[in-house]
Write the structure tokens for this entry.
Amino acid sequence: MKKILVIEDNPMVIKSLEFKLTKDGHEVLIAKDGREAMKFLKEANFDLILTDLMLPFVTGIELISYIKKNLPKTPIIVLSTSTQENIIMDAFNMGVDDFITKPFSPNELSLRVKRFLYKA
Amino acid sequence: MGSALHQTIEIASWLFLIYGAIICTGYLFSAVFSLIEIRDYKRRNNFVDETAMLQSLNLPAISILAPAYNEGLNIVENVRSLLTINYPSIEIVIINDGSKDDSLNKLIEEYELENRDVLYHSFIPTETIRGIYKSRNKAFKSLTVVDKENGGKADALNTGINICKNSIICCIDVDCILENDAMLKLIKPFLNNEKKVIASGGVIRVANSCVIEDGRIIEVKLPKKFIARVQVLEYFRAFLMGRMAWSRVDGLLLISGAFGMFDKPTVIEAGGYNTNTVGEDMELLVRMRRMMREKNVPYSVGFVPDPLCWTEVPQSWKVLQSQRNRWTRGTAETLWIHKKMLFNPKYKILGMLSTPFWFFFEWLAPLIEFSGILFFLFLLFFNQINWIIFLTFFLAVYSFAFLFSVTALFFEEYSFQQYTKPKYIFRLIGTALLEPLLYHPVIMWSAVMGNFDLIRGKKKWGTMTRAGLTNPVKKNKD
Amino acid sequence: MTPNLVILVDGFSNFRDWAWIMKINILIISFFLFLTFCLVTFILGLRLFKNFRNSKKQKQENLLIDFLNSYLFDEDFEKQKEIENFKKNHLNTELEIKVTIKEILQFHKNLKGESATALEELFLQLKLDIFILKDLDKNSWYNTARAIYALSELTIEVPVNKIEPYLNDLRDEVRQQSQLYFLKTAKTNPLQFLEVTKRPLTTWQQIYIENALKNFYEGPIPDFTQWIDHELISVVEFSIRLIARYNQFENIPKLVPFLKHENESVKMETIRSLRKLGYEELLSLIIPDFEKENLLIKKEIIKTIEQLGDYNDLQKIRPLIAADEWELKIKFLNIENCFFAGENSANNYRAHA
């Protein structure tokens, strides 16, 4: 079973992601902010990271650069309300694998997650 | 002698009664207006979550100006918390006002700053700038640090105004903790009005004893020390009743220096912050309002009835006294500078209501109280005290003070309810009972001394010894 | 009575006067204490009430999260049966209905695609639209605004005449929600409501409209020039801005005359839009009038030179900047530096090429 780390602070989105991804057969761990995420990342390995950019305590950019430096093989999908081109470009330039804007389609998300999990 | 004294007492009683009656009327009005304002605000923001708007490119860019003097203890954390503010386009300008400690070096090291050649013009004259620093690291590209010769808070803010690039400025205390959506809420009045908005402010809360981590309030707790708890009540009265009511009649004279947003061109046109007064925050707004009124341009000042900012209040009697001393001097200086506005119909609400009210009931009140005490001592000396009468006067004033505090508590309960544990309410009520006896005399004395010092020519700010707003579990204080 | 008081009572002839003041004070004290007592009771009562209500809300919310997630993602979920069950057991009080509506709206805001449509169906099947429509007709602005918000968020259509009058309501929250309603339910011509708009568009409303246009509206983008002759200046400015935002190059000729508009902010908006559209003739039209314009427009002209012009254009206005126009000078010098740097790198390239 693949392990996914979800870093998100919107409670409704957390619940839905957890439900859907668990139904899809993955193991899901939730971090509500950047610091909790850092803690989890140091403790375990994940097959995929799904993160928002606007997080309390640690900016999304800092988090992504940490992941890229220490866990370079883990695919990162960004799930964000930001529709600004420059932010999306920055994220891709940092090496994230996919960017999904909110509001999101859960089915599409599920498909993309599967794609990255089984690509390697 | 008996009848002359009797007459004096009677006149004095009458005067005190009238003074008291006006205060009561003011209290009543402010209660009613505040209630309406809070109710309206709650209804307006009940159904729509506007955080999605935070992504909009059309929100105007803001420059945050934060003067810093000897804040080395926490400056790095404070700046970090500012950098994670949720808003599309923000410039953060930290002005190092000639700190004697290692504030600047800490910042240079942590944020990879380097000295840059930046063109600027001193729209407002300030002390010499020693250097302007920006970061090599793209993650901190919104940060600018200005290093200058010491000139005081007003001077530092003026420097920030000269350097910053956006036309909306937000002046804050560098160690204030902002709510997540504070910027969005504070800019809204600027975007929602048919008249030009020159400034907006919000509700400030007391952060002492709250659990704070990485620049965010994790848990709201009632301060442990009595002195800080009383200030919680004071802030409730000031913000939930005072400012809200004033904002409703558009007579607001003061936007807190701890957190306020301004229209930069108007500030520059008015001449920037006044470096010759210790009440620079109030003096600026009064001057800006006066200027707009004299130019006959319709305008308004926004107030957001939402807790946006948390700040540390003095926890030692000495620091508190020096703060209140300064506030009194600031109020007196501002009123003196703008004395032309008093009872001047040309200035409408500002002249006919706001400034007279501040004069008689904010500035004069402590002096009247003090003279009341002197009068009491005088009567005592001549053995002319009718103790029953005295007791009734005392109880009348005491019960009014208690009523005022309880009303503010009620508004807090009705609106934000940020002290969630029931025991907090009881403690606050207990604090309200003790305040007139233990706290108020100190405040009154500081105010009286403030006036005395002003006449003597004192001009200093005094130093604020910071306990440092960190998690109280980690430290052994409190 | 203590000796002091006896002395006093004897010493003052008008004892009645004293008693009078005392009576007033005692009256005042009792009145204050009474009010205080009422308020303390209010506070405690309010706290209890809020706690009680919040716990019920929380219960309903938890129920809904499970219900909605199962409804959307669980294939084994028996939709009809569960819906009936929910309607019967959990939609009885006003609080339950309100929380349900709010939660569905929350979900709907964050999801799109099949899930969003499923939620809209669910909403109708739970007959919550009836409740919303009742709210719409209540006489209070906050209920109306909230109802319109729900309708627009879930794109539930109601007869036009029900919402149209609210476009010009006194309260801007109501106006804003009705604007968004018409935008989100429109198949074509999303800004048609502008034709009947009589009150100025605030910047906040414009931000919302633009946001909704980008993220919600799915039909063809209209030609924004149809409103540049609107009676409201705010609408004119807004349309000019949108023309640039949506790259309607074909409308450039229609915008050019607005460079000479009498209203300063319209002029400014026009310069901005034409600059964004990259109109080549723009500089030749605005530079000659540089001296006459106000500060804000001068800033826009300089910005335009930065984006569309070159070093020579910059030099044309150098003599026209007054000695005390510091903001302009700073901008000018910064741009000049950029141009120099650009020139230098171009020279280097030529040298190496």
